[in-house]
Amino acid sequence: MTEEPEETRRPPGTPCWSSLMVHGLGTTEAFYTDLFRWEYEPGPQPFGPYVRALLDGQEVAGIGEMPPDRHLPVAWTTYFATDDADSTAETIRACGGTVAVGPLDAGGEGRVAICSDPLGAIFGIWQAEEHIGTRLSGVPGTPVWAELVTQDTSTVGKFYEHVFGHEAETHATATSDFDYVTLLLDGRPVAAVHGVGRSLPHDRGPHWMTYFEVEDVDAAAARVHLLGGRVVQPPREGLTGRVSTVTDPEGAVFTLVEPRPANDR
């Protein structure tokens, strides 16, 4: 993949930002710096300590620290772009989802809401003002894909189609029990829904998975282990490359991906 600076707003319905809320900001920063070469700058503070992760000076993700009295799940959250957070929030409610926080202003950066789909998978919506989201993609250390891991695609796929205008494309495979739908905008893949049935982790429930690109999945997974994280699924061949699902030291789950060259897919 080639380096791709992002200078404009994402089309509505496109994943535009990934953020993580943790208990210990400093130790988490050190983990991702070692793994992805991230540097940091202070982000907006109205919601508590928060930093933006930079790669080659470009914003790629956010990390915030929970108040000491909050004991929320530590997880990466995928944010979808919208031109009108209030209108999108109303659509989410009308389609059976929940709006847990917001919509509210994040300084002059944009307008945000934290939501969940009808089966409980948490995601965010972001109406960009000064902050458009991730400004770099297609290089190691950047988020490159978002995938909803849920019971089955038919239950919740229609929700995202209605809320964000996604078109659903069923993945053709030799095995009929593989339940995977790619979500498209104007014919371009932007995210996916993976139905895993009873394989869904009981301690997590439905969730959005963030994929981060790396040069060498096997080496990166080994590094995660050395840095105090955990390898949940060892490196293996996936749909678009070699992948490994891991956690950081606080337990936030994410997937490492070493994309195949386009002509090998």
From TrEMBL:
The VOC domain, residue ranges: 14-128, 142-259
Domain of life (superkingdom): Bacteria
A Pfam cross-reference name: Glyoxalase_6
Gene3D superfamilies membership: 2,3-Dihydroxybiphenyl 1,2-Dioxygenase, domain 1
Alphabetical list of PANTHER family matching this protein: CONSERVED PROTEIN (PTHR33993:SF10), GLYOXALASE-RELATED (PTHR33993)
Name used for this protein in its record: VOC family protein
Top-level taxonomy: Bacteria, Bacillati, Actinomycetota, Actinomycetes, Kitasatosporales
